[in-house]
Each structure stands twice: as structure tokens, then as C-alpha cells.
Amino acid sequence: PWQWQTTDLPTFAVTPMIQEPGTVVATDEQFIWVETVRTSACQSCSARAGCGQAVLGQLLDERQQAQKNLMKMPRLKEQQPAQVGDQVSVGIPEDALIKASFMAYGLPILLMVVLAGIFNAISNSELIVIFAGVLGLAFGLAITRWYSRRWACEFRFHPRIIESVKSVKVE
After folding, report:
1. Running DSSP on this structure, what letter comes out for residue 103?
2. What's the CA gap between 51 and 45, in Å, rounded?
3. Could you give the angle at the alpha carbon of 36 between the alpha carbons of 34 and 42, nearest 5°?
4. Pair type for strands 66-74 and 17-27
5. Angle, alpha carbons 39-40-41 (nearest 5°)
6. Cβ atoms within 10 Å of 138's Cβ, excluding its own
7. Cα–Cα distances in angstroms (integers) from residue 120 to residues 21, 71, 141, 155, in the given order
8. Measured between alpha carbons, how far is 102 from 152 in angstroms, rounded to an integer?
């Protein structure tokens, strides 16, 4: 099976990161598992009192408002040792997130619109234009799948522990 080559991993000290607090729930020689709690964006917004989206969010069940995510990330040699119960800050580079978001959402829709537009200019048949749009969407999704498999082993697309905030004693 594939193994992380921690000696070849680059450092990202100056790269802007999107950060999320989490708790270390398990460790081994090669990986660290961190649990984060994803909360609704409405809870941190200053305009939530007058927002219709916040009212709609309040109607949802509490389980949907705060969902737990478990992330598996490689243990790096230069990183301070993480213990179960440690409060950590987990991050992913902004540019990697933007690139992955575009590939997942933007490219398939862009190809759908472009192919539908091209066939709309060429053909008078609405059925052909619809088929071209669906074909463009499928092609965009296939490209996204190919890139996601290619990027799965690239370190820059994986979350990593940026800092250990504090340690909590687990008994």
C-alpha cells in the first residue's frame, strides 16, 4: 500500500491557510485523527438577527447545525507530537481549496454552458442543445474525477495541523 514519504513533504509556513479548531482523537506512528465540529455560518455572522437564512437555519435540527468531522492527516517529523485530547488548529492552503472548489463546481458547469452555447449557435434543435449541455456536464465531471484521483496523494490538498493550542487531559 501507499505510504507518506514525510521526508519529501514541503513546509507551508508562509502560505495563507483556512483554519479550523479540532481535537486529536487518535494517533499512531504515521497518522493523526482530528475531530472538528462544523457549525452553521449563521452562528458567527453579525447580521443573523435580521437574516432570513438564519431563521431557516434555526428550524433545522441541532444535529444538522453542528456536525462532527473526522480527518486523517499524516504525522510530520518536524511537527510537535500530538497526544489524544490535544486542541489543535487544522489548516489547508487557500489556493488549494480554491483550485479544488473550481474543479468540483466551476469546471463542470462551465463546460455545460459552453457546449450548450456552441451547439445552440450551430443547431436549431433544442434537443441537441440539451444533449450537448448534459454531455459538457458529464465531461466536466469526468475531468474533475481524474484530477481528484491525481491530487489525492498530493500533500498540498490535505489538511494538516498548524499548531497545538492546548492539551486537555483525557482519562
Report:
1. I
2. 10
3. 165
4. unpaired
5. 115
6. 14
7. 48, 45, 21, 42
8. 16
pTM greater than 0.85? no
Distance (Å, whole) CA 86 – CA 80: 11
| Spatial distance between the Cα atoms of 159 and 162, rounded to a whole number of angstroms | 9
With 0-12 CB in 10 A as exposed, 13-18 as middle and 19+ as buried, what is 132? buried
Q: Which residues, other chains included, contact 26 with Cβ-Cβ below 8 Å and sequence gap of 6+?
A: 32, 33, 84
Question: C-alpha dihedral over 101, 30, 16, 86, to 10 degrees?
Answer: 110
pLDDT tens by residue, 9-55: 455 455 677 788 888 888 888 888 888 876 555 556 666 666 665 55
